Amino acid sequence: MILNLSDADVARVLGYEQLIPAMEQALAAFSAGRVIQPVRNMLTIEEGKRYLGIMPAVTEAGMGAKLVSFFPKNAGSGLPTHMAMIMLSRPDTGQPLAFMDGRLITEMRTAAVSAAVTRHLASPDSRILALLGSGVQAHAHLQALRHVRRFDEVRVWSRTPEHAERFAALHGARAMDLEAAVRGADVIVTATNSLQPFLKGAWLKEGAHVNAIGSPRPTWRELDDQAMHNTLVVDSREAALKESGDVILSNAPIFAEAGEIFAGTKKPPRTATTVFKSVGIAVEDIAAARLVYEAVTASQTVV
């Protein structure tokens, strides 16, 4: 029987405790060459407003594809900017296993990958988190990062100050101006659809870690060149060099893929200021979908 799982079905079984280590394993396998995965095919429907991404992958644990719509024009409308569907099949027989809503999976696996990278790269003494952006990904990253570090202070900035104030009130954070939020922060998350760089490398303290997960287009930027020329880690070299304006336009050298960090084959200096530029790749979605499928089928078996 092929399962059809809604967003609510996914929400009932998917948690960061299992998802963060699953992302480490999936990306380590990807960087070791044990995954078949082309770079995402992104169709432009309307430049700057509407896109459709096609993301297939074959892993040892699962096979499938995600169709994801990226509609930045939805911001503020009540509709998500990202919506998706994932098809999961068995890699040994090709048998379809499930179709599932991919909105929450996309949200959570993005934050889980950042959390996994943060666990390996950020100082164990990190206590101040700065969230630049106050939307879905800021919320997801706040949840995920609290699984790997204990923050005494959470700062938030948004281009729309009322949004930052609302986020701060909901999550016990401090709404701050941009530069003030970044200076002295141990971990910084950029989660926007900015077209131009707004995070300046001059503001980063030595040894800080940045998770740059927004602006996923070849000409869009969040970080300036100085910020990008710190120790740079990506989820996929090939994907980052095709999709990330921060990487492409800064000409910043890539130190490692996240999977190499997780496998221990690459390790930056302990005091390095690090930047993780995430574009999101299909292997993450397949690994998360497999977690959901196994949790749902296990609960059905118990019942």
Strand content: 15-25%
Proportion of helical residues: 25-40%
**CATH class label of the largest domain:** Alpha Beta
Low-confidence stretches: none
Helix count equals 11
Tell me the number of strands.
14
The CATH architecture of the largest domain can be named as: 3-Layer(aba) Sandwich
H and E order: EHHEEEEEHEHEHEHEEHEHHEHEH
Helix/strand class: alpha/beta
Q: Mean pLDDT, as a whole number?
A: 96
Which homologous superfamily in CATH is the superfamily of the largest domain? NAD(P)-binding Rossmann-like Domain
Write the CATH fold name of the largest domain.
Rossmann fold
What does this structure look like?
The protein is α/β, with parallel strands linked by helices and 303 residues long. It has two domains: 3-106 and 282-298, 2-Layer Sandwich (ornithine cyclodeaminase, domain 1); 117-277, 3-Layer(aba) Sandwich (Rossmann fold), CATH 3.40.50.720. Helix content is 37%, strand content 24%. It has eleven helices and 14 strands. It has helices at 7-13, 16-31, 103-121, 136-145, 161-171, 178-182, 225-228, 237-243, 245-250, 258-263, 282-302; strands at 3-5, 41-46, 50-58, 63-70, 82-89, 96-101, 128-132, 153-157, 174-175, 187-190, 209-212, 231-234, 254-257, 274-277. The strands form two sheets. Strands 9-8-7-10-11-14-12-13 form an eight-stranded parallel β-sheet. It has a six-stranded mixed β-sheet with strand order 1-6-5-4-3-2. Strand 7 (128-132), helix 4 (136-145) and strand 8 (153-157) form a beta-alpha-beta unit. Helix 2 (16-31) packs across helix 11 (282-302).
